[in-house]
Amino acid sequence: MPDNAHDPPAVSLSLDRESRWTLHHVLLDRLEREARADDPTGIDPPPVAVFDAFETLDAGETSVTTTELEAMRSVVAEYHHSTSWWELERSRLEGLLHHLTALLEERGAAEA
Questions:
Q1: Among 1, 15, 40, 58, which is most exposed with the fewest C-beta within 10 angstroms?
Q2: What one-character DSSP code corresponds to residue 41?
Q3: Which residues are CB-neighbours of 18 under 8 A, at least 6 positions away?
Q4: pLDDT tens string 73-106
């Protein structure tokens, strides 16, 4: 039996081009944060799910697992609340955060 036999069905991630680009860029920035830091010892490496989510998005896929969706939401929430240059993208990040949260809530209701 394949390892993913117990994984729930994929979630369809429908985003407009700008939101998809922002999500891709935020995930990439999070993946590269450690490498860019002057002192990487103070930065936790991203969870594997963030790598998986980025690879899925980077491959142009529109179906993601719940775990990837949770990882995306977590990273977007972190960037939405940051005070870095990402403030310029705050409204798009907020829209993404609401969209990803709604998908997770729908997923939770469907699995209950």
A1: 1
A2: G
A3: 92
A4: 999 999 888 867 666 778 889 999 999 999 999 8
Cα(55)–Cα(49) distance, rounded to whole angstroms? 10
Which run of H or E residues covers position 12?
strand 11-12
State pLDDT tens for residues 27-41: 999 999 877 877 777
**Whole-prediction pTM:** 0.82
- Report how far residue 55's alpha carbon sits from residue 4's, in angstroms, rounded to the nearest whole number: 17
Pick from 68, 35, 34: nearest CA to 51: 68
How many degrees, rounded to 5, is the angle at CA 82 between CA 76 and CA 88? 85
